[in-house]
Amino acid sequence: MEYTLILIVALFFTQTLYSQSDTIVYYKGHAPCDTIHGADRQVVFQRKNDKKSVMMTFELKNNQWKLEKTEIIKRMRNGRYAIGGGTNNIIRSYKKINGGYQVEEYNYEGKLRKKGLSKKMFPLHRVGQWQSLYDNNVVGIEVFNEELMVQSYTIFKGRNLPNNIYANADTIAEYKGGDDGFAKDLAHNIEYPRICQENGISGCVLVLFAVDESGMLADIQILKKVDPYLDEAAIEAIKACNKWRPAIKDGKPVKLYNIAPVNFLLR
User: Fold this and answer.
1) Which residues of 95-115 are buried (b: 16+ CB within 10 A; e: fewer)?
2) Mind listing the pLDDT tens digit for each residue in 204-224?
3) What is 110-162 written as a DSSP string?
4) Beta bridge partners of 244
5) Per-residue CA distances from 202 to 182, 187, 228, 260, 261 (Å)
6) pLDDT digits 0-9 by tens, 117-131
7) Cβ distance 56 to 47 under 8 Å?
8) What mean pLDDT, rounded, does the chain reach?
9) pLDDT at residue number 5
């Protein structure tokens, strides 16, 4: 299996002027492991002081560790921490409970997006069921067994739709050219409706779609609507991105679901 999603190395520094001690936890693929041998991703947690820490994500490429992103963690009041500098800026709150923490994650707008249980604060050691929320409605579920994600699905119109991640497949569905290729083709395929431009209508449409067992797109639907014309344009843009290879599980192709944001911005 190719290098996969989740490998976390957490490195806690107790930093003084003269000394430094390290604590490291390793993950291989999306599963925890005990040593660096076989690991393909690591997140290094450096505690600078009581209010600020740095978290760096490294990925193993060509037998060398490459820095992928750096995030700054700042302690706020009431058990909250601001995490920023990566692709997503979030605020995470912790409430101590028996055996760990009740964790809630908020986006940059202050809206609750995820919640669940963790045995640790940094790095998270998730257990049980984690909920994904949108406008206070549960829209997805992730199930963890000692930080190993064993199930993930989107809830849509009463259906549990398996997500295109390694919890549900040995090899996920991939677009020709990878994520960059998909983003490039999607941007090229977007046609901004003239009527929306003339009336100053913009926004981000979330499109839900499946890649079926033959690598064809299926079940294309709007997860978050903006405007009927923009919604339809978003669907057409996704339909034109048809260079997919199906996901594989136990040697057989399987149908999995993706969610893609399609942005319409007035310039």
Assistant:
1) eeeeebbebbbbeeeeebbbb
2) 999 999 999 999 999 999 999
3) S-EEEEEEES-TTTT-EEEEEEEEETTEEEEEEEEETTEEEEEEEEETTEEEE
4) 175
5) 22, 15, 12, 17, 13
6) 999 988 889 999 999
7) no
8) 88
9) 32
